[in-house]
């Protein structure tokens, strides 16, 4: 498949682009300012208009949105940037869209849990990006919502149990993101994840 | 009618509450920190949960959302605060909702026009609040989108022409907001306004 990874200079996006490439996909990694060391990249300014985003979508089978501003530009990047990428994808005939979100982004009643209570602005941005993808587009979506991301080795195991927050190795998040692409019953689903006891492949198969 | 004005300590909300009271309505003006000098007020924290917002909606016929953070708290007040008020209204059986927005909030292709180019974050917050009201609620809405607000005397005249930006006396915006409440064909409409040549009553009648 031809896959666009939006946010390929980020911690998740870079590993994701590498993994999808290794699986044989043609991957274009987009970046804002810092070009990542990947086989195929394209600059994509998330402040640009939808019409300016369309050219990079030509012939693309699936878009991953894994960009983020780390709290510095939530309205323009994490919220409106994401939605403009969705609109550009739809206008370009892309049908599959996989979005990296955050634990409980769609459940504001949980935003006081643990570390989330310091991230209300972030949660609001992610919430309305997720809501738009689910309810205002015709894209076949999957939304992945991990808890805290850690730069630790892959465990290869996860839990999709939504009852509590948990940590996630970035490498495991990348494996889940890559895995949902080829998991038909991951379509139209929101997947909350954390480290757990279930091998990723079987957790995906049990969705 | 029993009317809730959310943001009654603000420049628009205070005048609006006074005008609606003078018209014979029972008006409850909500405020965050600074209680306005109005006959009936209620504290309403826009950071609170939807469930905590419901009590103030009891028996209310129409809600005005005219609160704003002046850029200081866009995600939590102007965006998520507005949407939580909508949800509390719906859950409380309120059917009529009138929202103060901003010129071209729903037309991002115009966000580089004039003074708007410094207000992208604000426009994004207003855009998604407006979008939610129109597409994700069952509320009977009217959205009023003025250009720059000025603390100048009422002119009593407006233009609803959408081709260019313009200024608006706050008093004129208040007259339009009050007027749409009793204008049946203002329902389910977005009204962009600026100072103009048409008396407000006839402009509303011509909607």
Automatic annotation (TrEMBL), chains A, B:
<dbReference type="InterPro" id="IPR036291">
    <property type="entry name" value="NAD(P)-bd_dom_sf"/>
</dbReference>
<protein>
    <submittedName>
        <fullName>NAD(P)H-binding protein</fullName>
    </submittedName>
</protein>
<dbReference type="InterPro" id="IPR016040">
    <property type="entry name" value="NAD(P)-bd_dom"/>
</dbReference>
<feature type="domain" description="NAD(P)-binding">
    <location>
        <begin position="7"/>
        <end position="182"/>
    </location>
</feature>
<dbReference type="Pfam" id="PF13460">
    <property type="entry name" value="NAD_binding_10"/>
</dbReference>
């Amino acid at each position: 498949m031809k896959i666009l990874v939006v946010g390929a200079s980020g911690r998740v996006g870079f590993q994701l682009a590498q993994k999808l490439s290794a699986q044989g996909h043609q991957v274009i990694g987009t970046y804002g300012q810092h070009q990542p060391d990947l086989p195929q990249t394209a600059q994509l300014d998330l402040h640009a208009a939808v019409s300016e985003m369309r050219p990079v979508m030509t012939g693309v089978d699936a878009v991953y949105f894994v960009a983020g501003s780390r709290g510095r530009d939530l309205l323009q990047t994490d919220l409106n940037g994401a939605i403009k990428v969705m609109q550009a994808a739809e206008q370009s005939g892309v049908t599959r869209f996989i979005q990296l979100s955050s634990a409980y982004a769609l459940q504001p009643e949980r935003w006081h849990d643990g570390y989330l209570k310091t991230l209300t602005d972030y949660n609001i941005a992610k919430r309305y990006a997720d809501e738009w993808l689910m309810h205002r587009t015709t894209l076949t979506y999957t939304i992945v919502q991990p808890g805290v991301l850690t730069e630790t080795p892959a465990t290869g195991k996860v839990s999709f149990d939504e009852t509590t927050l948990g940590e996630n190795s970035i490498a495991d998040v990348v494996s889940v993101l890559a895995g949902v692409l080829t998991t038909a019953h991951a379509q139209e689903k929101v997947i909350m994840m954390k480290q757990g006891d279930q091998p990723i492949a079987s957790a995906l198969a049990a969705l």
